[in-house]
Amino acid sequence: MKKERILLNIGAILGFIILLFIFNKTFDSYQMKILNLCGIYIVLGLSMNLINGFTGLFSLGHAGFMAVGAYTAGLLTMSPAMKEMNFFMKPIIPFLAKVEWPFLPALLMAGVVTAFVGFLIGSPVLKLKDDYLAIATLGFSEIIRVVFVNIQSVTNGALGLKGLPTHTNIWWSWGTAMITIVFMVFLMKSSYGRAFKAIREDEIAAEAMGISLFKHKVMSFTMGAFFAGVGGALLGNLLGTIDPNMFRFVLTFNILLIVVLGGIGSITGTTISAVIVTVAMEVLRVLDETINLGFVQIKGIPGMRMVIFSLLLMIVILFYQQGLLGTNEFSWDWFSKIKGFKKTPKKEVKQ
Amino acid sequence: MTFQVFLQHLTNGMSLGSLYALIAIGYTMVYGILRLINFAHGDIFMIATYVAFYAVVLLGMQLWWIAFPIAIIFTYLFGRLVEKAAYRPLRNSPRISVLISAIGVSFLIENLAIVVFGGRPKAFPIPPMFNKVFNISGVSIVSINFFIPVITVALLIGLVYFINKTKTGMAMRAVSKDYEASRLMAIDVDKIISLTFGIGSVLAAVGGIMWGLKFPKLEPLMGLMPGLKCFIAAVVGGIGDIRGAVLGGFILGLGEIMLVALLPELTGYRDAFAFVLLIVILLIKPTGLMGQKLSEKV
Amino acid sequence: MSILRADNITMRFGGLVAVSKFDMTLNEGEIVGLIGPNGAGKTTAFNMITGVYKPTEGSVFFQDDKRDIDITQSRPDEITKLGVARTFQNIRLFKELSVLDNVLIANHLRLKSDVFSAMLTLPNYRKEEKAMYEKSIHLLEEVGLKELMYEKSTSLPYGKQRRLEIARALATNPKVLLLDEPAAGMNPKESLELMDFIADIRERFKLTIFMIEHHMQVVMGICERIFVLDHGITIAQGTPSEIQNNEKVIEAYLGVD
């Protein structure tokens, strides 16, 4: 039985890789960009779900973490010549001027630096709870943005960085997404995952069971920050351009929407809803833009797209608090259940 | 820095602080009664400014004294509507859901504002009486900077009287202590909560209009930063406490102005000041300067 | 030999003195009761001993084979790790989680593997995880909840939730177990069963038990010594028969004419 599961899992992953190959061959660059974004948002959604959904810490600092990751990877991968072109207002500090790393170490470094920032922020802030924690993490996220606007010799200030090498392709984004999914599944299955959930359910009881709240909260927060940083790095090297104002609260809101829609505390839910939300965000862009049908022009209404998304969030939280999946996870048993259901004749169900 | 320049900054800081205080009171009142950050408070403030803008455009500049009260009444109703739509259905839900709903409704209002009012900034109409410049022994004061603290103080006195001396005010205090016991005393808890939102919104509306008169640039996202800062002011002062909100508002307003005045090289960090202050306070005295310790029952 | 000692602990909330100079020693293997009218400060005393509150005055000590450890300023998780476990007056299970998970979580504090070997299920972790499962299932079997181990914890009937909470506390390998009104909400028959159960686990797990309880039948039937609190003050202590005949206690419970 267990062997069968493993085979099924491997089969599914292989099938998915083949699917990615096909997409890679057939999709145009716009579709590829959306596909990449889907992978990146899975990483981001899961990292927020780890902190907010599984450990029950209501953190709103994701945009800040992403900024740290995006800038770290951006500065490490950018060519020295490009840096010179970018930093015309104020030269870049010498120690960053000459570095040019390959993508993988840069990506890991982005994660590590962000995790470190998360650790530094988390240590004091995680003593707070609920809305206080929310507002403090949001505050830190804003501070990071303001600092990035102001340290021109490192970040090029409000001008941002242009011409980052666009390393991110579907192998990077979906590869990272898969690694993140596997990481989350294994983490949540382990004793540490259970400890996180215990903290979410009841802090006082968890502490009485000998779980050090501080240690586990900081652990969860730091890991979440790591993946948020990696996600930010992938995003930066996908778009090729970053500036501090990209990393406003709206970005955190989008990720929150993914987590809430998928079901707070479900890996499967987050993964599915990351794809749905990302695709919908792009598809609904038409609402904001003017569509030219040749004979007639339909005027877009700027802002309409986000109206729909905020409405969606409200509807989910007001009427379907469980989201798509609640805290349930995918398992192959779903299929056997469906099969089992089909086998059962309707008469017997009635009895 | 000469004494005159200092006074100049001081008056500026006082009027900014008064505005912060006014908006912070709304946060503190709602928090006191619902234990919830009303994320949409900054957006209610924004709506008030827009409504005032359109009312003045429709009625003409001379009739601003009709236009502004219309905006205030509209905002009062709007605040109650927000409460009914986004918070009341979640009265018995986990806090995290309410918080998400609060964020959701805030985004909804902001984006609806972009759709309805357009994303481009608008200039707030300033009736001449708010725009006069006085010169008092070298210190020049725009009249609005004089009006703001005066109106704030007047509203505060009214509010404190209302809360402490009227029956409804007493009911509000009761509800903020204990829902169940209040219900047993035949207080309509939902109605009181709704009213609290309404009053908070009125204060936000007055604050918003005065904000518009001081910084006459309207944008759909204009409520975001002041909203966050005023929440911080409320926390710094001790959330749930009206005196705390006023104190916090003034600390923040004066602090920001003085930071820029005394350390001009930190001007770029002006918006970070509030957050740094918040984090420092939360770490040193999480209950705020005037707050009382609440401990969880085990 | 004494195992847990409270030295004149006092708890003040603002002007209110919730517990005043509570002085107590628990000897190894005893069952000691703590009784008193509502609001007497019993749970506050528990909270001071288990680190939830830091006493305004006084100290708490935990005695090991040789050591005498001051736990007054320790965090609740540190105290649990030393071997003092507790239950709560208003049951605090991990609501959304299964019965088994509730007990497994209580094993986490003894886990030696770090988070990475746990995630990668390295051999050292796999061994520990297996031992945790076996221990938890065994424990659930002993308290009669094995059949229900995959159920959501809150779906259990009330009495079984109480048992689960005790099982969860036992999973932390305590030397001292603090029970906060374990029989609350139970009918007389269930209370008697619980009494047997408590006596039974004391034997099997070599526990020292300190319990708050309102059901006099339970307290008198099982406790070897009893402390009586009233308005935060220890008004009496002694054997059940001494307490039953103590005038101050009768006054506190029945009021004075």
Structural features, described:
The complex is a heterotrimer of chains A (351), B (298) and C (257). Helices cover 73% and strands 2% of the residues of chain A. Chain A is mainly alpha-helical and 351 residues long. Chain A has one domain (27-283, 321-350): ABC transporter involved in vitamin B12 uptake, BtuC. In chain A, helix 3 packs across helix 12 (213-239), helix 6 (103-125) runs antiparallel to helix 12 (213-239) and helix 9 packs across helix 10. Chain A is globular. The relative contact order of chain A is 0.16. The model of chain A is unreliable at 341-351 (pLDDT under 50). In chain B, a hairpin with a 2-residue loop joins strand 2 and strand 3. Chain B has one domain (15-223). With 298 residues, chain B is mostly helical. The model of chain B has no long low-confidence stretch (mean pLDDT 89). Chain B has helices at 3-34, 41-59, 64-87, 95-117, 143-165, 167-177, 179-184, 189-214, 224-237, 242-262, 270-284, and strands at residues 122-123, 133-136, 139-142, 217-218. In chain C, the strands form 2 sheets. In chain C, strands 6-7-8-3-9-10 form a 6-stranded mixed sheet, sandwiched between helices. In chain C, strands 2-1-4-5 form a 4-stranded antiparallel sheet, with helices on one face. In chain C, helix 3 (99-105) packs parallel to helix 6 (158-170) and helix 7 packs parallel to helix 8. Chains in contact: A-B, A-C, B-C. The A-B interface holds A 52, 56, 58, 60, 124-125, 127-128, 130-132, 134-136, 138-140, 142-143, 146-147, 149-150, 204, 249-250, 253, 256, 260, 264, 301-304, 306-307, 309-311, 313-314, 317-318, 321 and B 36-37, 86, 89-90, 93, 95-97, 99-101, 103-105, 107-108, 110-115, 118-119, 220, 224, 228, 231-232, 235, 268-269, 271-272, 274-276, 278-279, 282-283, 286, 296, 298.
